[in-house]
Write a structure and sequence with these properties.
Layout lengths: L6 H8 L13 H9 L3 E3 L7 E3 L1 H14 L26 H19 L10 H5 L1 H11 L18 E4 L6 E4 L3 H13 L2 E7 L6 E7 L3
Antiparallel strand pairs: 1-2, 3-4, 4-6, 5-6
Helix pairs in contact: 4-6
Amino acid sequence: MTRPPTAAQRRVIDAADPVTGRLRGGTAAQLAALVRLGLAFRHPRPPHDHFLTPAGHRVREGMVEEAAPAEVVETSGVFAARVGGEEGVFGAGRAREVRGAWEGLVELRRMTNPDGATDRPCGWERTHLVRAVALALEAAGHRPAGADGAEGDGGGYRVRGTPQPEAVAVYETDVTALRACAATLEGAGWQTSEHTEPRTRARFLLASPRRA
């Protein structure tokens, strides 16, 4: 990106779908300008919609962080996958939002993976590992830590970044639940391995996107 987007261009970016990055507004000139800035691309397949690039997602996320530092409040109008440990209300509409986000992500895989595959992560997921893994888990019905019924028993998953490239850690206090998380992620195109923390002896998964 050679220069920051204008206020009008930022409004177009802000209105993009938070998961797929599909641009849902903007004039032809604004969309072309975002492409020139490296913030969006025009999909080669009909209907030739425009989507945010990873750089465009970073611009959008910077705006989201200013508006909603906690990253997850249903009333804010911003969707974010639950990584575990967030405070906030888990309302009745949450399952519907998660289902829609997952369906959007599967469609993004279809449109952006070179072979149109939906059974393995796409480029967006590789640049948003924690959020992508959390969405796969929540969409499959796993409880994030802090969810109703999870905090009291100490259960629920937590997804955290790691120093390893393209790998995140998934924690669960219950080994059976941890292995269920592994099965879900493997079905969603991630490869997992189970490990033990040397100091705490806590079990956790390392998950990374499968390439083929």
